[in-house]
């Protein structure tokens, strides 16, 4: 087992004895940073929470989320992760657990207590923790997972948003600077800066501030444009691992089915190599901070589809293992979309949400769980065709890998329409007693969840 602080040496991560450490782990997304497709609500976490607070009242609202966070990660979860051969977890969290927009720069101790609990459980089981600020003031990208109610990443245009983020990281560094089971800090999840120079500048600023407090812990630095590209990056931040997110379209419903052809494998490797060109040029370590396919549960052909997805995952892991890369799969626990384990279909949570989840899928308000709809597709296609006709510049709107249809879906369906459904979701909790709410929260307890056995076997035998 590795010992002491982990650090960067050349293009490797090593322990205090100089022994190479390869971090293989999973993300605890869905708890301290909830996401719509992983937990079942529409839109953003804060919009949904606001609607739930209004329907449930303060006492029941606080009771439910206290029990939810408690059940989501316990000793049993850590034991299971360890049994799968994993030695690290990435812990996504929102800044809103630690400060309020209406009361900025006033720390909330409750947020630290929740994070402390996860770190302490992992430490007991000799699991490294990577602290990931998944949502920052102003939103570092345009997506729901940064709790963004719009498509505007205001973080990059307002210095105060950046100042508050540095301030919070300074407090986090003071809290964990002596903890050797904290592998390091992942300052921004999937930043997206249209100017393509401000991400690197912010990392340099953060480096200067944090190193004065904590000279030991590594940084895990995501690339720009959802951790996929490195334009504007020149100087290397010392003791830093550079992160790519390596999602493959063949692992999602809208992608081509993976059959393991030479052409598909060549495309997979070409995409991967493009993302890591910066790291190779500068001789720094690579961490695949997110990857993984989604899985089908209700499609008549789900068994065959999922077999293809498992084979795709095997191929990705084969590539990473060939290059001795550290990685963290997305995701450990959810409601059955991507997780290693998930809430049981018979659980109180899944039973309550089932009709609403079907409605969300038909309305295509979640990008990971949409069902095909000829009516919606026609509306989107017609509008995109008209926009591209009257404004050809729309096709060049950042990020450049999105076409006009993707921008429309994000802005109309997954932002505006999704937000209008938050009250409908919250109404599911009206009249629930605290006993009812405890049962709902307990759906996330390890002993009440179901395992995706083939996925977990692949991770446990990751060189296959």
UniProtKB/TrEMBL annotation:
<dbReference type="GO" id="GO:0071555">
    <property type="term" value="P:cell wall organization"/>
</dbReference>
<keyword id="KW-0961">Cell wall biogenesis/degradation</keyword>
<comment type="similarity">
    <text>Belongs to the glycosyl hydrolase 5 (cellulase A) family.</text>
</comment>
<feature type="domain" description="Glycoside hydrolase family 5">
    <location>
        <begin position="73"/>
        <end position="333"/>
    </location>
</feature>
<dbReference type="GO" id="GO:0009251">
    <property type="term" value="P:glucan catabolic process"/>
</dbReference>
<keyword id="KW-0326">Glycosidase</keyword>
<dbReference type="GO" id="GO:0005576">
    <property type="term" value="C:extracellular region"/>
</dbReference>
<dbReference type="GO" id="GO:0008422">
    <property type="term" value="F:beta-glucosidase activity"/>
</dbReference>
<dbReference type="InterPro" id="IPR050386">
    <property type="entry name" value="Glycosyl_hydrolase_5"/>
</dbReference>
<protein>
    <submittedName>
        <fullName>Glycoside hydrolase family 5 protein</fullName>
    </submittedName>
</protein>
<keyword id="KW-0378">Hydrolase</keyword>
<dbReference type="GO" id="GO:0009986">
    <property type="term" value="C:cell surface"/>
</dbReference>
<dbReference type="Pfam" id="PF00150">
    <property type="entry name" value="Cellulase"/>
</dbReference>
<dbReference type="InterPro" id="IPR001547">
    <property type="entry name" value="Glyco_hydro_5"/>
</dbReference>
<dbReference type="InterPro" id="IPR017853">
    <property type="entry name" value="GH"/>
</dbReference>
């Amino acid at each position: 087992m590795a010992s002491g602080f982990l650090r960067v040496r050349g293009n490797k991560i090593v322990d205090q004895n100089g022994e190479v450490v390869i971090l293989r782990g999973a993300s605890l997304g869905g708890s301290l940073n909830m996401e719509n497709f992983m937990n079942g609500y529409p839109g953003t976490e804060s919009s949904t929470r606001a609607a739930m607070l209004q329907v449930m009242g303060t006492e029941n609202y606080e009771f439910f989320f206290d029990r939810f966070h408690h059940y989501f990660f316990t000793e049993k979860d850590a034991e299971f992760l360890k049994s799968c051969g994993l030695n690290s977890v990435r812990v996504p969290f929102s800044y809103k657990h630690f400060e309020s927009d209406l009361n900025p720069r006033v720390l909330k101790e409750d947020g630290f207590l929740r994070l402390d609990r996860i770190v302490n459980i992992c430490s007991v089981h000799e699991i490294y923790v990577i602290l990931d600020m998944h949502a920052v003031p102003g939103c570092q990208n345009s997506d729901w997972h940064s709790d963004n109610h719009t498509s505007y990443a205001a973080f990059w245009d307002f210095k105060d948003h950046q100042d508050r983020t540095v301030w919070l990281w300074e407090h986090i560094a003071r809290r964990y600077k002596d903890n050797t089971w904290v592998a390091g800090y992942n300052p921004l999840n999937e930043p997206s800066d249209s100017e393509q120079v401000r991400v690197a500048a912010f990392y340099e600023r953060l480096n200067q501030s944090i190193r004065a407090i904590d000279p030991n812990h590594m940084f895990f630095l995501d690339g720009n444009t959802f951790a996929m590209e490195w334009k504007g990056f020149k100087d290397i931040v010392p003791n830093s691992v550079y992160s790519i997110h390596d999602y493959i379209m063949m692992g999602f419903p809208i992608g081509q089915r993976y059959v393991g052809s030479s052409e598909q494998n060549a495309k997979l490797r070409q995409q991967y190599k493009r993302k890591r060109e910066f790291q190779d040029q500068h001789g720094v370590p690579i961490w695949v901070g997110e990857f993984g396919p989604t899985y089908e549960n209700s499609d008549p052909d789900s068994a065959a589809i999922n077999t293809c997805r498992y084979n795709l995952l095997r191929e990705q892991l084969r590539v990473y293992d060939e290059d001795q890369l550290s990685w963290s799969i997305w995701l450990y626990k959810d409601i059955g979309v991507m997780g290693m384990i998930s809430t049981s279909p018979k659980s109180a949570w899944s039973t309550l949400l089932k009709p609403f989840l079907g409605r969300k899928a038909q309305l295509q308000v979640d990008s990971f769980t949409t069902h095909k709809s000829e009516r919606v597709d026609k509306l989107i296609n017609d509008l995109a065709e008209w926009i591209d006709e009257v404004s050809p510049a729309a096709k060049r709107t950042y990020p450049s890998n999105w076409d006009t249809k993707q921008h429309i879906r994000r802005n109309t369906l997954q932002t505006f329409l999704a937000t209008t459904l938050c009250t409908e979701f919250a109404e599911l909790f009206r009249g629930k007693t605290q006993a009812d709410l405890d049962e709902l929260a307990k759906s996330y307890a390890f002993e009440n969840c179901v395992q995706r056995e083939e996925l977990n076997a692949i991770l446990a035998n990751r060189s296959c």
